[in-house]
Amino acid sequence: MKQTDYTATLSFSNGKPSVEMPVYAGSIGPDVVDIRKLYAQTGMFTYDPGFLSTASCQSTITYIDGDKGELLYRGYPIEQLAEHCDYLDTCYLLLNGELPNVKQRDDFHHLVNQHTMVHEQMQFFLRGFRRDAHPMAILTGLVGAMSAFYHDSTDVHNPEHRHIAAIRLIAKMPTLVAMAYKYKIGQPFMYPRNDLSYSGNFLRMMFGVPCEDYVVNPVLERALDRIFILHADHEQNASTSTVRLCASSGTNPFAAISAGVACLWGPAHGGANEACLNMLEEIQAMGGVAKVGEFMEKVKDKNSGVKLMGFGHRVYKNYDPRAKLMQETCNEVLKELGLENDPLFKLAKSLEKIALEDDYFVSRKLYPNVDFYSGIVQRAIGIPVDLFTGIFALARTVGWIAQLNEMIGDPEYKIGRPRQLFTGSAHRNVKPIEQR
Ligand code: ACO
């Protein structure tokens, strides 16, 4: 963090003395005003619910330029990573700051592969859930429960513990997600196969059965790998901030990541791709492409409460770069599966075309986000809609861990403890019950 050659002055209209605050510059992006001494100097807090103008930390991991529609992991554009690297390379990059060389790559892939199995007792724990439990309920439980299975990696202040917890989480998430799915549909769990790629192994654990060989389709394998890369990190979003806040108390990494899973579950965050697919299915049921105009009128009518799901983003005010890559992947997967005429894909394209030309969307800078096409890809692969957020959690686990590690390693790290503007009753006395 570099101090700039200018400062910010906060002045008050009530005669209070003004205060001067340092301003820091990052490598790119907006400068920040350091308000840490504000309370000591003035007895006042700042007010920013939703963190609209507040940087909660300094970070070197992910950078988003929402106006340009740019996403960088450790400085590398997401488009280049999606084209030249696989998900485990991306994990290495996010965790270590650099892309691996050949030896580092081999060692890292080998290391992750050594940890794909989960403790056998996990099965019995999983079997305690009802069959109709939502996969995110199961995952929140299973990930949190890992702290009860792996006692040698629970000290968040010990770098070795954090390292092994990171590898375990990255390696075991696909196994846990697939187990949650198999449990729900009543099929036997498939043990991992370490000679397969990360995403190939996941496909087999999801769709293979013990009585038949499973042949991994390379197009689907690559598509899934790309979904994982695109969702691996996204700087200080709600679930990542949850993980940081949770781990700031010194809790163990598995507990902190399970808090991230719980946060991601919400429809305003990880649940949006599910909502987008449901929307497409609803329009399809209404009559499909022919009803697009009618649906768009509802979207533009503020009183209808209808939104075009998969459109708009708090940060991106341009085409989400992940949406472009996802559309490409969508084309590849549908072609491979002979689903080029998939009605939902046609419908999505027609909605996108209309929206990109319509003044309502253009003037509000509303563009497709990553969720607009990812649901169609996942559905084509055979992933059930209620597992979409679980796939997102699997992919985001590495981002959560990288951010957690960065926080613990930051000499300025403190337990997260926001302030408040209290608007409730001031001091009052308890009256006897008959007088209330
Ligand atoms: N459809 C129709 N109108 C929209 C949409 C949409 N999808 N998104 C925003 N708008 C409108 C709003 O009504 C508002 O209009 P107004 O200025 O006339 O009042 C304007 O665009 C600005 O929208 P805000 O809600 O203020 O933007 P915000 O940054 O708070 O919201 C959000 C971003 C929540 C993503 C929103 O665009 C949305 O709800 N989109 C649909 C859900 C979705 O796809 N979420 C996925 C996000 S990506 C992810 O989490 C991985």
Plain-language structure description:
The chain is mainly alpha-helical and 436 residues long. It is 50% helix and 6% strand. It contains 18 helices and 6 strands. It has a 3-stranded antiparallel beta sheet with strand order 1-2-3. A 3-stranded antiparallel beta sheet has the order 4-5-6. A hairpin with a 2-residue loop joins strand 5 (70-73) and strand 6 (76-77). Helix 9 (218-230) packs antiparallel against helix 17 and helix 14 packs parallel to helix 17 (371-381). The longest helix is centred in the middle third of the chain and has 27 residues, at 159-185. The protein is globular and about 80 Å long. The relative contact order is 0.13. The model has no long low-confidence stretch (mean pLDDT 95). Bound molecules: acetyl coenzyme *A. Acetyl coenzyme *A is lined by residues 268-269, 272, 299, 307-314, 364, 366, 369-371.
Overall 3D shape: globular
Q: Work out the strand percent.
A: 5-15%
Total strands: 6
Query: How big is the Rg?
Result: 24 Å
What strand line-up does the widest sheet have? 1-2-3
Count every helix, treating DSSP H or I runs of 4 or more residues as helices.
18
* SSE pattern, N- to C-terminal: EEEHEEEHHHHHHHHHHHHHHHHH
Low-confidence stretches: none
Distance between the termini: 56 Å
Helix percent reads 40-55%
Biggest pleated sheet: 3 strands, antiparallel
What is the SS-derived class?
mainly alpha
Give the distinct bound molecules: acetyl coenzyme *A
How would you classify the quaternary structure?
single chain
User: What would the average pLDDT be, to the nearest integer?
Assistant: 95
